[in-house]
Amino acid sequence: MIVLAAAARGQHLSAASAIVLDADTGKVLFAKDADTARFPASTTKIMTTLLLLERCKPDDIIVAPPDVEKVKQASMHLKPGERVKVRDMAYALMLRSANDGCYAVACHISGSVEAFAKLMNERAKEIGCTQTQFNNPHGLNDTKHTISARDLALIAREAMRIPTFREIVRTQKKPIVRSTNLEDLVMINKNRLLKAEPTYEGIKTGWTIPAGKCFVGSATRNGYRLLTVVLKSDDWVKDTKLLTDWAFRGHDRLVFFRPGEVVGAPAIVRGGQKERLQVSTPVPGRSVVPKGLSRFADYRMEWEPLDAPVRKGQRVGELVFTDAGGFEQRLPLEAAEDIEPATIAGIVGTTGSKTWTWVVAGGLLVSGAVLMRRKARNFAPAQAPTRRRS
Questions:
Q1: CB within 8 A of 162, min separation 6: which ones?
Q2: If both were cysteines, with which of 51, 193, 299, 315 could 321 make a disulfide (CB 3.0 to 4.6 Å apart)?
Q3: DSSP state of 65
Q4: Cis omega (within 30 of 0) for bond into 203
């Protein structure tokens, strides 16, 4: 396909920076200048809303500061002392892109813009951002307020884990309750893609003259979600559609490990009624690879020294697998069974007949000296998530 080849080469994309990320695994499927720090404009509000939802209860009341009317441009027209619930304020931030609402949130949570910006930067580091410097809660132009496309994708991935956030960003129109301005109650989403295609589900537009047109997007098709970011774009809708369509058409979603299944060689347990422990992973092991790429993955198991008793569900190590594209994932390993301590009689009866061999590397034990391989399973794609899916 010409469109796919063009996107793969980064051509015909007007955006200065862009990225496509698999939301489930965090794997980057496409990147164009994704680590250059740029002005994010109102896509900043993804982080502001994330912190609002993480730190406040839905029915908490946010009171507009006395100087709230000094905040310019996109606005929900807050009046000093006006009271708005957290859940309604979140809709105002993400749909109306209310700068004055962001200022009220910053003061409510941290007492000032400066203190809130510090909180934003701390949270960004926790998420894994390396090219982020927030200096305000709304994204109005500031030379000290920049972020990369990759970091924006990571923040969006974190926010989309919250069911309330997902519900908000895919909403096209939302009436809110407010205490003062009763003539301005309806928040309307500026994301035109929501009307264009039902698989699109957010997330945030942004624009200033220095930033250009920016957009952080999400779409779910065939049961899995992709995130896109375009910064300093001439046409964010065209760029986002190009990247989204290319990514879904050109990649397969593979399943290597299902939750709860026993995987690989069992771990060794010292002092137990059984010498070997069956292990499983509680989460799915999936990957997204370009169509036509090998369906095999290399994997190994790593665990800490184990002594009986061991309880089913106990965390015992990690399953590390690398798909054919070289992307590595680490999944938790749990005991798939109970192993009780050996009785004295059992120990005496087996003394000299059992040998435990331990190879310690960086505090972890690696099972086996040879890497194992696994082929992806035939997989019926899950249904696309509903709006209220958690």
A1: 50, 53, 54
A2: 299
A3: P
A4: yes
Query: Which pLDDT value is given to residue 377?
Result: 67
pLDDT of residue 390: 25
CA pair distance 44, 230, nearest whole angstrom: 13
What does the pLDDT look like over 336-357, one tens digit per residue? Answer: 999 999 976 555 544 444 433 3
CATH code given to domain 2-249: 3.40.710.10
Which parts of the chain register pLDDT below 70? 1-11, 264-265, 344-372, 377-390
CATH 3.40.710.10 spans which residues of the chain? 2-249
Dist. CA 247–CA 262, nearest whole Å: 32
Q: What is the pLDDT of residue 250?
A: 96
Provide CATH code, domain 255-375: 2.60.410.10
Contact 270, 356 (CB under 8 A): yes
Determine the Cα–Cα distance for residues 172 and 259; give it in Å rounded to an integer.
35
Amino acid of residue 143: T
Whole-angstrom distance between the N-terminal and C-terminal Cα of the chain?
Answer: 35
What is the average pLDDT score of the chain?
Answer: 88
The length of the chain in residues reads: 390
